[in-house]
Amino acid sequence: MFNLRYPGGIWLILAGHILSQFTLALATDPQRCVIKRTEDPEVDDSTAILHTVKKCSRNSIIEFTPGNYSLFTPVSFLGLDNVTFLLNGNIILPSNITRVQVEINSTLNQPATYAIPWIYIQGTNVQVIGSESFEFGRFYSFGQQWWDLGIRTLRPHLATFNVTNGVLKNLKIIKPIAWGWSIPGQNIHISNHFVDAKPDNATRDDTISFPFNTDGFNLSGKNITVDGYYGHNGDDCVSVINGARDIVAKNGYCGFSSHGLSIGSLGRDGAVHTVENVLFKKWTMDGAVYGARFKSWTGGRGYGMNIAWEDITLVNVSTGVFITQNYYDQDKGPKPPNPSNSSTKIINIAFRNFKGGLGTSWTDGSCISDPCWNYVPGLDEPKAVILDLYPDTATNITLKEINIQPFNNPGGTPNVICDPAALSEAEESTLGFKCANGPFIPA
Ligand SMILES: *[C@@H]1O[C@H](CO)[C@@H](O)[C@H](O)[C@H]1NC(C)=O
Ligand SMILES: *[C@@H]1O[C@H](CO)[C@@H](O)[C@H](O)[C@H]1NC(C)=O
Ligand SMILES: *[C@@H]1O[C@H](CO)[C@@H](O)[C@H](O)[C@H]1NC(C)=O
Ligand SMILES: *[C@@H]1O[C@H](CO)[C@@H](O)[C@H](O)[C@H]1NC(C)=O
Ligand SMILES: *[C@@H]1O[C@H](CO)[C@@H](O)[C@H](O)[C@H]1NC(C)=O
Ligand SMILES: *[C@@H]1O[C@H](CO)[C@@H](O)[C@H](O)[C@H]1NC(C)=O
Ligand SMILES: *[C@@H]1O[C@H](CO)[C@@H](O)[C@H](O)[C@H]1NC(C)=O
Ligand SMILES: *[C@@H]1O[C@H](CO)[C@@H](O)[C@H](O)[C@H]1NC(C)=O
Ligand SMILES: *[C@@H]1O[C@H](CO)[C@@H](O)[C@H](O)[C@H]1NC(C)=O
Ligand SMILES: *[C@@H]1O[C@H](CO)[C@@H](O)[C@H](O)[C@H]1NC(C)=O
Ligand SMILES: *[C@@H]1O[C@H](CO)[C@@H](O)[C@H](O)[C@H]1NC(C)=O
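That is the input. Now the predicted structure with 2-acetamido-2-deoxy-beta-D-glucopyranose docked in place:
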């Protein structure tokens, strides 16, 4: 089956040799579709939403009016073509945990690569524009109770945006259950994004109610810009994962206990994962476990190439600059063997203009095992830099204009963890600091 488009908005749909359908669309009036909303918060609006989106899946503006829409069933919007969603209302997920789990357990939602999204959007030229008003353009997921109970089974993430030529703007994510938006698409512009994944009754160091896995974005697509992010969460603000190319993430603030602006994880179970051309620029990391982070699993076989973090302000962070090529689940036993001595390669990675100060703790409330998931040998206090490299597999690492202070000590010198034996040849002369456990000494 294939579709032909003729000027004037006439669609011919041919199935085999038979002209099965013939529709006239209005070429002049853009199709504007308003989604009906029941005022009763107990009533699921999913069917009404799906119905309208199906009807208006081409050359349409689909409008949610100010007010709450109950989206109690996971939905997929597939094959969209030139559609703008005006989210002038809010989307409400079920507040009942069991209900969410039952839905996820039986969902017919489109598969994502890792876990199931509540909302799956696929198509070309798709925009999701939230209200200018701070009260609307929201997604309420009632994650707090999931964090309180530490439930991590049958947990959906909010949305997958698998679109070519896409826009996400002015969206507000309120208490997500797990991570927010996964972006496997291409040519995507995201702006003015807001994430509230901060528990109401816990600090960053509480192990109870910790909002683990509440990443803002998982980016695996191509040509994606995130410009303008403000959030509090308990995992990466932006995590750039396998397949990602040509990524810029800039002008953001990450609070509560962010796990950083991250590349990875890459290379789990020996996978060939690759990431290329990434720039993080102009971010403030407040209370974060990491400012900048590169994380690959022991035994990986891909690479991360041409990656930079620039103009990063640190406030009370645990580690400013962090690289590990040797990650494993430390709470699940000893490091798995790596008989082929492989590692995800690092090629051209730069950290420029970092300023600010470290906090008082090297970890946060997500540390619920001994050793902690984020422990590396020698880690007993906040550090300016940790390079946990696999020998001879990282080339052209540079740190420039690094001005990080210990907690509450503007004149002091912070410490670093770095093993010169793991550096590639001639790296020592271009690294930008002295690679040795001890004080940070620019070089
Ligand atoms: C895209 O849809 C809008 C209506 O939202 C319409 O005005 C416009 O002509 C469409 N663009 C194309 C290329 O068909
Ligand atoms: C929408 O739902 C949220 C979450 O339950 C609630 O806080 C808010 O008051 C509701 N807004 C409207 C306009 O009903
Ligand atoms: C929560 O959802 C489950 C599954 O749908 C249902 O059995 C249960 O009665 C609901 N609980 C409440 C308090 O509504
Ligand atoms: C999920 O579905 C499986 C298979 O239908 C069932 O055995 C299991 O009990 C379900 N789990 C939950 C939490 O609903
Ligand atoms: C995204 O859509 C493409 C087809 O357009 C498909 O091949 C791919 O598997 C989808 N990715 C995800 C993560 O859904
Ligand atoms: C990248 O995406 C933007 C939209 O965000 C688009 O304007 C631009 O043309 C794309 N660049 C390439 C090389 O495709
Ligand atoms: C937050 O409140 C919930 C619900 O009362 C409770 O289960 C949880 O333990 C509290 N968290 C903290 C850190 O006190
Ligand atoms: C997205 O982020 C979450 C939270 O860290 C992570 O568990 C998940 O594996 C990521 N998704 C993919 C496809 O890697
Ligand atoms: C850093 O944390 C300390 C102790 O919690 C606090 O007093 C201080 O205000 C924080 N600094 C900034 C700049 O927020
Ligand atoms: C891996 O490294 C070990 C220790 O250096 C060495 O004995 C072994 O031969 C190496 N294996 C391969 C496949 O290179
Ligand atoms: C090292 O990386 C920088 C970017 O950080 C790049 O400009 C430079 O060309 C690279 N050097 C080599 C020798 O590839």
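The CA atoms of residues 188 and 376 lie 36 Å apart.
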